Amino acid sequence: MKETETKKAPRFTEAMPPRESQRFIKNSRYFTICVYGVVMLLITAVIFKAIIDFDKTKAWFGQVLGMLSPFFFGALLAYVLNPLVHTFYRGIGFLQKKAKFKLRHGLHTILSILITYLIIFGCLVLILLYVVPEVAKSFMDFVNYIPTAYDMLIEILEGLQERYPEMDLELIIEPLNDVIPDLINYLRNLAVNTVPALFTVSVSIVSWIVNLLISIIVSIYMLYDKRRLMLTAWRVICAFVPKKRLPACQQILSECNRLLGNYVVGAFMDATLVGILCFTLMNILRLPYAPIISLVVGLTNMIPYFGPFIGAVPGVVILLFISPIKAFTFALMILCMQQIDGLIIAPRILGLSTGMRPLWIILAITVGGYVGGVVGMLLGVPTVAVLSYLFDLYLQYRLSKKKITDDQVADLIKGYDLDD
């Protein structure tokens, strides 16, 4: 009967599990971990290779930076000129309102950039026509005066030798007799052969001109497309930064931009005014070599605190060969001018752009000078200003998490003997 029929044994194929259960099940979490692991291994290998072959790595980075230097310089030039372009943009907009006509935004921007570069190129032409020849003339006059100053120094040393026979000045006179003639010949050859040498190195000159043109073109495009570039940058930031962090990110970047922009533009304007003031005062006081000394004083004035004194040292040394009275007059002039700059010019131009205390500025100049020389001293202050601002924000964040206020921190130092 059907009820008593024994059930057939299942076939082998029926006993196998479904084919779907044998498929590989993807797990996005483990896949992400694997990708991160592979990426970290690659990064570690690259860093390890870079450390082992440090010389090759350094040379490679040097080549890359050299290749991209026109773009870096163009970006820096656009950043420095942007306030001037913005000023002309607003001025043209004001004229449009007065004259009751309207320019397209693109033409409006192009006119602002064109006026800015015409002013810059005009200043460069004036410098090439008037300042450079005067600086070269002052340099040649100083070189030609070295023999006279050398004879005067020898006479002074010989007079001291006659008055004080027990003094042995031969250790000073002999090196001077050996070094000074070679120094004179070297400086004269340098002054005479500089221009021919520049023309002989034609490849370098062509490369320099090409890089300069590329930098100018890059800066023009960046100034023209600054709104689009800013939108692109913020799209990237918004894509990777959490939405709740965007207001804080915008505030931080805005403050960093203010610190850098105010310092770079303000320091350049301050150095220019100090150089012009030094040139004017030296002409009024009838001090020689005014162009070259004023140029050195103006350039070094971009370094806070130490700049005026660093720039004054070469001037004092040069004028000391001519007349101690003139050297003293120049030193007194620099001291008075530094007070004018520190109390009147710099506060009005720079204001509280960096917000740094003098101790941190001195630290920034010292570390920057040790790492990068004069360029490091120039860039040390804005760099430390930005880092100081970011570190202060981090401290405020940590203190707010612990619910500690600034007043509570101030109460902790009341037990110390501090003069307020």
Write a structural description.
With 420 residues, the chain is an all-alpha fold. 82% of the residues lie in helices and 0% in strands. The chain contains 13 helices and no strands. The protein has helices spanning 12-15, 28-52, 54-99, 105-163, 170-200, 202-224, 226-240, 246-284, 290-300, 307-322, 324-349, 358-401, 406-411. α3 packs across α6 (202-224), α4 (105-163) packs antiparallel against α5 (170-200) and α8 packs antiparallel against α12. The chain is globular, with a radius of gyration of 34 Å. The chain starts with 11 loop residues before the first helix and ends in a 9-residue tail after the last helix.
Largest β-sheet summary: none
Fraction of residues in β-strands:
under 5%
Radius of gyration: 34 Å
What is the general shape? globular
Give the averaged pLDDT, no decimals: 76
* Unreliable residue stretches: 1-5
Helix content: over 70%
Beta-strand segment tally: 0
Given helix and strand content, the structural type is mainly alpha
Beginning-to-end CA distance, first to last residue: 112 Å
Number of helices: 13
Order of helices and strands: HHHHHHHHHHHHH
